[in-house]
């Protein structure tokens, strides 16, 4: 039997960090630290890949639709398609630029950075969005907040009657930043592995340690998740061989030809006598 079903994933190091600072950022820092350690190791397996969101050319289609929408909207009001000589043609084109940028960067490709050593599979992922975009958004937000403050001082609280939504948006965008996610798979927490040939990906069902920050008492616990390694242009066989060299020989490995035939491992787990550990932070 796969010994990982009974192998506890909760560690003293992780528990100590959570006790010190039981916030979401703690989990991010813990995983990012391990990612950096594996990245700096000369013996680790490293590869990167990108994945488009949705169907083929989704980003291009939605961006084009967002750009031309103001043009067609103003054309409806005019009762005919706007020509370059029309009074509102420049307004229609300029009004489409901002929606175009929002959609283009909102549907940006997902970037995956995989790092594998002899104990872990660590993943860092984010959308392919330039950081300068978020810097510009923050500067615009601070400018908007300043305008709101001046308006309140000049006009009074009534200034928020007409511009309340803009003020809330400005305050929200002050902390605008690219969402970055780190995942961590321990080899001794892997329950099942599934290769999907057509999509050239590897699904890994595993146990991992996490904690709840909004409950009383705060809990540190094990959970189950299915992470996917998107191999992209990489040779899946090389990646699988590295994983096989570091997992227990009793870990079950499945293979399927396409995504539609993937196994529901959350249902399969019910056939095993699996108990997930859970402790309050104070009693661990």
Explain this structure to me?
This protein is an alpha+beta fold. The protein has eight helices and nine strands. The strands form two sheets. Strands 8-5-6-7-9 form a five-stranded mixed sheet. A four-stranded antiparallel sheet has the order 1-2-3-4, with helices on both faces. Strand 2 (110-116) and strand 3 form a beta hairpin. Helix 3 (58-78) runs antiparallel to helix 4 (89-106) and helix 5 packs antiparallel against helix 6 (159-173).
Name a few traits of the molecule.
8 helices; 5-stranded mixed beta sheet; 4-stranded antiparallel beta sheet; 284 residues
The biggest beta sheet is recorded as: 5 strands, mixed
Strand content: 15-25%
Question: What global shape is seen?
Answer: globular
Total number of beta strands: 9
Order of helices and strands: HHEHHEEHHEEEEHEHE
From the alpha carbons, calculate the radius of gyration and give it in angstroms.
25 Å
Strand order of the largest sheet: 8-5-6-7-9
Please identify the structural class as seen in this structure: alpha+beta
Number of DSSP helical runs: 8
The parts where pLDDT drops under 50 for at least 5 residues are none
Q: End-to-end distance, in Å? A: 28 Å
Q: Considering DSSP H and I runs of 4 or more, what fraction of the residues is helical? A: 40-55%
Q: What is the overall pLDDT average?
A: 84
